[in-house]
Amino acid sequence: MEARFARRVDDALGARLASRGYACVDDFLERDTADAMRRELERLADARDANETGRGGGRKYLRPNRTKFGDEHLFGKPNIYECDMHDDGTLAETKRDAAYATIWEFFRATERGMADAFRRVIPEIALRDGPDSRTVKLQVNEGRGACFPWHYDNPGAPSNRALTCILYLNPDWKPGDGGELRLQPFCGVAATIQPKHNRLAIFFSDRTLHRVTPSTAAKRYAVTVWLDADFVDPRTGASTNASELNLNAREALSDIAKTAKELARGNAQRALSRAVYADEYEASLVECMGNARGADEMLQAHYEHCRSVKKNHALKTLVDALRDYRREVEASAAEVEL
Ligand SMILES: O=C(O)CCC(=O)C(=O)O
Ligand SMILES: [Fe+2]
């Protein structure tokens, strides 16, 4: 399988990633392998404990999504179930079960194979080596509008996630089913990626604002591999505090296009993103959380973050200029559909 990764991750893909910050590869695995993985994921998602009826609805291996929020809260996105393949507590028994052989073969192949393949085509990202340098998540969105709000993938220290690689396994997906991945390069042109069977979507984890649109298909399967890298400044993976942005506001305003491009290339953009895309964050939170527990806390935290950025006069001026600029960019180019 590693050899297949190396063939599918080619120089053209590296060039697309470097220039746009995201890319996708179709036919990522052999077709039979992808089909087998899909069947195994279905089995894993359908497995039930005879006498357990807790929050997971008796699911044996997958758990309701839990997202860390602030220092203490864990809130879940409705209708999304997932598990981390390192979770020996739930998954260990499946390792020796032939019914799950392909998923585990994939997991083992990502141990080195995935980072090796990408290191060759994007050497400027210092991807780490070894088994602890990647995480793999199995996920199912169970229709009923299941979705993800706008977010970045490495929200805090000590996360070193650098590259997000999502393998979609949905042979019956069709337009209208939703569950599309939306990417919003900072002050750039948005892209929509359909979650087609055997397609790998790739983007830089720390600088790509993204979300998943509501899914109405009964089941939407995805396997995510996060590859870690060494960030030069260990703090850059962590801070979303706008006042720490090292910007000279007057200089930043004098050429807003240049400022936007610089922000787009790094993860300092995350300090401004909520204010620049305030309405989009708000709408996606409402859409994703509905009345679920935590919805209100998340919305209030979003408003508070935007207020705190705007309290600083220089930052408010910069945010306003970036908002005008992004609208200009959006009006001048069609979105990308993949
Ligand atoms: O399901 C997807 O397409 C992406 C999910 C996602 O953004 C995440 O797990 O962080
Ligand atoms: Fe994500």
Describe the 3D structure:
- The chain is globular and about 60 Å long.
- The chain folds into two domains: 227 residues, Jelly Rolls; 96 residues, no CATH class.
- The two termini are 25 Å apart.
- The chain is α+β, with helices and mostly antiparallel strands.
- The model has no long low-confidence stretch (mean pLDDT 90).
- Helix 9 runs antiparallel to helix 10.
- It has a seven-stranded antiparallel sheet. Strands 7-12-9-10-14 form a five-stranded mixed sheet. A two-stranded antiparallel sheet has the order 3-4.
- Bound molecules: 2-oxoglutaric acid and fe (ii) ion (FE2).
- Keywords: Dioxygenase, Iron, Metal-binding, Oxidoreductase, Vitamin C.
- InterPro entries: HIF_prolyl_hydroxylases (IPR051559), Oxoglu/Fe-dep_dioxygenase_dom (IPR005123), Pro_4_hyd_alph (IPR006620), Pro_4_hyd_alph_FE2OG_OXY (IPR044862).
- It holds the Pfam family 2OG-FeII_Oxy_3.
- It comes from Ostreococcus lucimarinus (strain CCE9901).
- This is Fe2OG dioxygenase domain-containing protein.
